[in-house]
Design brief:
Strand order of the largest sheet: 1-9-6-11-5-4-2-3
Number of strands: 17
Largest sheet: 8 strands, antiparallel
Order of helices and strands: HEHEEHEHEEEEEEEHHHHEEEEHEHE
CATH class of the largest domain: Mainly Beta
Low-confidence stretches: none
CATH superfamily of the largest domain: Cupin
Oligomer: single chain
Number of domains: 3
CATH architecture of the largest domain: Sandwich
CATH topology of the largest domain: Jelly Rolls
Radius of gyration: 25 Å
Helix content: 25-40%
Shape: globular
Length: 372
């Protein structure tokens, strides 16, 4: 089925021919889209201490980076041109932003990172750069000129507070207006400059490095592996050099460590916990006056439930992972829980077998009664 979001391509064709392979300009990707919030709402978010925000000023080789939270006076002191306000994870705070991300559910939730919104005044930019992950750049209010390049020279400007490309050589250029979108695979150099006051919505994806995955997996093993035995050397012989780590000691240590094993199931367990783990700056708010279990049951069976926008629910087979924790449910609840993971909300009536689990998630701030 063709998808206007993908320029008329079906999701299958987009994944086969475009994803991770080449840029794609999509005019009118979301017809009538002019954005989800305005500059004032962006500034209000940037003043919160639970929101990650940045202000970037400059051009050419002269750049300045400031981190939030900001004060109202900080915005009043800004010039009329050449600055950008970035707010991360807007989907955690704005239901409409969370709904926007659901338009990209042809991609695995485990790969999705967040929705970052950029407000820029005329000339505002974050400089020519490249990302190590896929990104969709959706234009809301205003216009932004994008230049891209497939250049292999990705060296950076020295001593800059941002990762600015030292020598950017554009090969293509477009101006995007409301509803237009540009998809870029990793390592495509790009430079966006605001033509007028504008807002751009960046749908970014997770792409952990091999080192990050390996380190996290070793930490996972530390918590899960159990080995019997202790180092012992009943046949120890005197060494010529007491300060030397002898061959026999190395052999025994090697043999003990070689007993560490993992299976596909261990990898799945690690992946579920790791990929559903919230970022360190994400905190959940349990309900101030929680419903009783009986009241929750009545409300959930009437309205259904929804995952909190900050929560991440994933699964492998019958094993479910929510915010870094693992759960298993009876067979009668598996299909409904998979539907909740896919759609992030579950309509009533709910399987009775899941109500107690949902109530635990509700009191933790991970799940809520679905909005009417």
């Amino acid at each position: 089925m063709k998808n206007p979001l993908l320029g008329g391509l079906s999701p299958a064709r987009f994944l086969r021919e475009v994803w991770h392979k080449k840029p794609l300009l999509i005019r009118n990707a979301i017809p009538g889209f002019t954005g989800l919030l305005g500059p004032g709402e962006m500034q209000a978010l940037a003043r919160r201490d639970d929101v990650e925000s940045r202000i970037i000023r400059g051009s050419g080789v002269d750049w300045q980076l400031d981190h939030g939270p900001f004060r109202a006076a900080d915005f009043k002191r800004l010039p009329k041109t050449d600055w950008t306000l970035l707010v991360q994870s807007v989907n955690h705070f704005l239901p409409a932003a969370d709904a926007l991300l659901q338009r990209f559910d042809f991609l695995p939730h485990a790969r999705l990172d967040d929705l970052m919104v950029s407000y820029a005044v005329p000339g505002g930019s974050v400089g020519p750069h490249f990302d190590s992950y896929d990104v969709f750049l959706l234009q809301g209010q205003g216009h932004r000129r994008w230049q891209i390049s497939s250049q292999h020279d990705l060296s950076l400007l020295p001593d800059a507070p941002l990762k600015i490309l030292r020598r950017f050589k554009p090969e293509a250029e477009w101006t995007l207006g409301p509803g237009d979108m540009l998809y870029l695979p990793p390592h495509v150099a790009h430079h966006g400059v605001a033509e007028d006051a504008c807002l751009t919505y960046s749908i970014g994806f997770r792409a952990p490095t091999a080192e990050e995955l390996a380190h996290a997996f070793l930490m996972h093993l530390q918590d899960t592996v159990s080995l019997d035995g202790r180092y012992a050397d009943p046949d120890l012989r005197r060494q010529r050099h007491p300060g030397e780590i002898g061959r026999a000691m190395l052999d025994q240590i090697e043999a003990m460590i070689a007993r560490v094993r993992w299976t596909r199931r261990d990898i799945a367990e690690f992946a579920g916990r790791y990929l559903s783990e919230p970022k360190p700056n994400v905190f959940f708010d349990p309900p101030v006056a929680p419903l009783t279990p009986a009241a929750f049951r009545r409300a959930a069976q009437q309205h259904g439930v929804a995952i909190d926008p900050r929560s991440r629910l994933l699964f492998t087979s019958r094993r479910f992972y929510l915010n870094g924790e693992a759960f298993e449910v009876e067979p009668a609840g598996v299909a409904a829980l998979k539907q909740l993971a896919d759609a992030r909300r579950l309509s009533a009536p709910l399987p009775a077998i899941l109500i107690a689990l949902f109530y635990d998630w509700y009191t933790a701030g991970w799940l809520e009664i679905a909005p009417s």
